[in-house]
Amino acid sequence: MVLGIIVLASLILVSIAGAVQSTNVWSHKGSELMNSEKYDEAIKAYDKAIEINPLDSRAWYYRGVALSELGKFDEAQKYFAKVKEINSKTWYNKGIALGKLGKPDEAIKAFDKAIESNPQDSYAWYYKGVALNELGKSDEAQKAWVTGKKIESKAWHNKGLAILKLNEADL
Predict the structure, then answer these.
(1) Which of 132, 91, 147 is nearest to 114 (CA)?
(2) CB count, 10 Å around CB of 69?
(3) Which of 11, 57, 111, 121 has the highest count of CB atoms within 10 angstroms of its CB?
(4) pTM of the prediction?
(5) Cα dihedral 115→117→121→127 (10° resolution)
(6) Using CA atoms, how far apart are residues 59 and 91, in angstroms rounded to an integer?
(7) Which superfamily, per CATH, for 87-171?
(8) What's the 3-state SS for 69-111?
């Protein structure tokens, strides 16, 4: 039984390591193609890296750069936005983990990075408030919570406006 668990764990680790290595191989290939100004081919290489690891922000970024080199600026912006989203989620999740580890000072720094990457992340504002409150910084916590609530309220307001416009279009 124990041997079976060890073998299974080893296979999982090898699989994860292989995926990371494959992502790096495709990203490296994309970089080489970019250096040779073969942007269409580079995009395909970055697509493979993203397929293997959708959270590889470098692959998303460089795919955007390749698109920019081809003059496809509107499409490129979508990839740059995805990089911001991935980075924001990464910092947010780090903040959550640090908070659960009882490290509110470090959690606040992580939430600040998430907010820097995506100022509209109401959850990052909320949990920053939680960490500040744990440190006895009630005033700062309240400000963070109010900011998060305003963002959330604005989102619901905008959703309501969008629904009204859709309903008007049906009339």
Answers:
(1) 91
(2) 15
(3) 111
(4) 0.56
(5) -40
(6) 18
(7) Tetratricopeptide repeat domain (1.25.40.10)
(8) HCCCHHHHHHHHHHHHHHHHHHHHHHHHHHHHCCCHHHHHHHH
- Among all chains, which residue has been given the structure tokens 């080199």? 69
Per-residue CA distances from 150 to 37, 64, 84, 112, 118 (Å):
46, 32, 21, 17, 15
Distance CA 76, CA 67 (A): 5
pLDDT tens sequence for the chain (171 residues): 555 556 544 444 444 444 446 788 999 999 999 999 999 999 999 999 999 998 888 999 899 999 999 999 999 899 988 888 888 888 888 999 999 999 999 999 999 998 988 888 888 999 999 999 999 999 999 999 989 888 777 767 667 777 777 776 665
Class of residue 42 by CB neighbours under 10 A (exposed 0-12, middle 13-18, buried 19+): buried
The reply to whether 12-71 and 87-171 are identical in fold is yes
**Looking up tokens 């920053």, which residue turns up?**
128
**How far is CA 166 from each of CA 152, 153, 155, 156, 160, rounded to the nearest angstrom?**
21, 20, 17, 15, 10
Superfamily of domain 12-71 in the CATH hierarchy: Tetratricopeptide repeat domain (1.25.40.10)
Enumerate the domain spans of the chain: 12-71, 87-171
